[in-house]
Automatic annotation (TrEMBL):
Residues 140-281 form the Aspartate/ornithine carbamoyltransferase Asp/Orn-binding domain. This is Ornithine carbamoyltransferase. Signal peptide: none annotated. Belongs to the aspartate/ornithine carbamoyltransferase superfamily. It comes from Sphingomonas humi. Residues 3-134 form the Aspartate/ornithine carbamoyltransferase carbamoyl-P binding domain. Reversibly catalyzes the transfer of the carbamoyl group from carbamoyl phosphate (CP) to the N(epsilon) atom of ornithine (ORN) to produce L-citrulline. The keyword Ribonucleoprotein does not apply. Coiled coil: none annotated. It holds the Pfam family OTCace.
Length: 286
């Protein structure tokens, strides 16, 4: 059984196939089947994009919460996986602990998809790659500058995807915020001058969900890495991307995210298309 828990280790051809399917005519691969969508964390883009992607493939999405399943308390992870597979053609989960996804995948007879975990966000990474290709006409050789907190699930999946498809990613972050397990070929620096000449400038929030207790420290450490008009002037032809939600005035100014070189809404829409492409690819492997 093929699962999608991370972009790490995927062959270039597999990622390219998912991106191609994202722009292909949807096939009714889930006709008459359900799709279990398990959420430990709330999300606007993930729930909407996945429910619509499942619908476009002819399936019926079922939204599930921890209180309904009682994973690991009322019932074992393995029993939950096997039970859900009786009804659904795919199990998708947005969780805190990546290990839970691995447990589900080890027991599930249907594909398991990571809708976000503490370490990886592969569906966001696919949407980012799809958006980069649409904006630049290619992925290989595109210069991407990721600015801010570079040691999170979004940056990790972006790095894995860029490394696999040949984009030139530079993570521009202060010490202590650089990607701890960056793939070969990914450059890391503290110097904001590295943004110069970028085709894509990417940012994410400085304080993610569950990090509220660290707000004061993180804002102090990352404040100089705000993407503003002065920083974008170093790469005047660059497009701005952000995984959203954004906090205007913190990691990015309103003038940048709402400006003419921002492609964040195309990127958000591509969450649906890339999710559909990933599901099609997985279901075709099955």
């Amino acid at each position: 059984m093929t699962h999608l828990l991370t972009l790490a280790g995927l062959a270039r051809g597999d990622i390219e196939a998912m991106l191609a399917l994202a722009e292909a005519t949807p096939a009714p691969l889930l006709a008459g089947k359900g799709a279990a969508l398990y959420f430990e964390k709330p999300s606007a883009r993930t729930r909407n994009s996945m429910e619509l992607a499942v619908h476009q493939l002819g399936g019926h999405p079922v939204y599930l919460t921890p209180g309904e399943l009682g994973i690991g308390t009322r019932e074992s992870v393995e029993d939950i996986a096997r039970t859900l597979a009786c009804y659904h053609g795919v199990i998708c989960a947005r969780v805190f602990d990546h290990g839970l996804l691995e447990q589900l995948a080890s027991a599930s007879p249907v594909p398991v998809v990571n809708m976000l975990s503490g370490t990886d966000h592969p569906l966001q990474g696919l949407a980012d790659l799809l958006t980069i290709r649409q904006l630049c006409g290619r992925i290989e050789g595109v210069k991407v500058a990721y600015v801010g907190d570079g040691d999170n699930n979004v940056a990790r999946s972006l790095a894995q995807g860029c490394a696999a498809l040949g984009a030139e990613l530079t993570i521009v972050a202060p010490e202590g915020y650089q990607l701890s397990d960056a793939p070969a070929g990914v450059r890391q620096t503290t110097d904001l001058a590295a943004v110069a000449g970028a085709d894509i400038v990417y940012s994410d929030v400085f304080v993610s969900m569950g990090q509220d207790a660290e707000t004061e420290r993180r804002m102090a450490d990352l404040g100089a890495y705000q993407v503003n008009e002065a920083l974008m002037a170093k790469a005047p032809d660059a497009w701005f991307l952000h995984c959203l939600p954004a906090r205007r005035g913190e990691e990015v100014t309103a003038g940048v995210i709402d400006g003419p070189r921002s492609a964040v809404w195309r990127q958000a829409e591509n969450r649906m298309h890339s999710a559909r492409g990933a599901l099609m690819w997985l279901l075709q492997q099955d």
